[in-house]
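Regression test case RT-17, inverse folding.

Input:
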């Protein structure tokens, strides 16, 4: 009855059927439930996602098979979401494969979400993706690692001195998204990393986390030999609202690097003061670059609004 109702023209009846099939827990209904995930209505697909997960561990292998082989992207997306709810460790390798190779971006996103839900067991495999040449894959891995949260912290910290700077940079970015003070010592280490990309990632992570304890190191990075590090450090000083770093930032307005001067102006937007206002007025008049003068004027308008 309920399987037949999955084909009903009435959306509400299809939703009811999907929920009832989950309540019944009949694993033999799973193949038809998987096919029904091609339904054009999101409410029906959501009900199926939840009901397929209700079938428990016995559903994992059929769902993984559908994830790997079903031609319909809507179906693959749905089964990936069911696998996220089930959070089975045996799903890790197939989900990693989907994240890397599925032609449908939404399915890949769902695979990343499922790996996040699996948690600590997925940390090491995700770290291996940090060196993937596909920026989407490495970025998704960073997101998933950060979203796993503090439970992944101890494992991530073991990679903070990994020999590959791409791994260190990805780990630093993941740590920066966790929002816990426990990551601060690792970020302080990364701010002194021999690799400029890692230092830049650490500066951005410090800014994202608003870690004021790192302000002295950020100030030092304003004279870093790498241009990107200098710019990211300047922006981070604004994000952490480093009022007592204002003199250092104002000094950087005379740096010959145009992009650094712009980054400092962006930081000053968060540090309103009489000194800031005067410096921006001067910059809007005397800076040799029109783009810097324009940004200074816009920042003054924002501060005075």
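Golden output:
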């Amino acid at each position: 009855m309920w399987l037949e109702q999955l084909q009903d023209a009435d959306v509400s009846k299809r939703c009811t059927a999907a929920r009832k099939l989950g309540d019944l827990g009949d694993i033999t209904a799973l193949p038809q439930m998987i096919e029904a995930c091609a339904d054009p209505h999101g409410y029906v697909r959501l009900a199926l996602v939840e009901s397929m997960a209700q079938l428990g561990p016995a559903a994992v292998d059929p769902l993984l098979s559908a994830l790997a082989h079903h031609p319909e992207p809507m179906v693959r997306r749905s089964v990936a979401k069911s696998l996220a709810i089930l959070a089975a460790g045996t799903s890790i390798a197939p989900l990693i494969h989907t994240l890397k190779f599925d032609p449908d971006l939404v399915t890949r996103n769902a695979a990343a979400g499922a790996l996040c839900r699996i948690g600590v067991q997925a940390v090491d495999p995700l770290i291996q993706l940090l060196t993937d040449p596909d920026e989407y894959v490495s970025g998704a891995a960073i997101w998933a690692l950060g979203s796993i949260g503090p439970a992944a912290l101890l494992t991530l910290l073991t990679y903070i001195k990994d020999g590959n700077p791409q791994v260190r940079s990805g780990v630093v970015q993941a740590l920066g998204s966790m929002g816990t003070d426990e990551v601060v010592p690792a970020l302080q280490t990364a701010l002194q990393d021999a690799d400029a990309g890692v230092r830049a990632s650490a500066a951005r992570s410090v800014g994202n986390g608003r870690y004021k304890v790192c302000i002295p190191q950020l100030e030092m990075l304003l004279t870093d030999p790498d241009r990107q590090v200098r710019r990211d450090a300047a922006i981070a000083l604004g994000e952490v609202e480093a009022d007592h770093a204002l003199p250092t930032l104002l000094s950087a307005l005379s740096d010959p690097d145009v992009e650094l001067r712009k980054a400092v102006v962006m930081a000053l937007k968060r540090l309103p003061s009489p000194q800031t206002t005067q410096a921006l007025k001067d910059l809007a008049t005397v800076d040799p670059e029109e783009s810097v003068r324009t940004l200074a004027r816009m920042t003054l308008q924002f501060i005075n609004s």
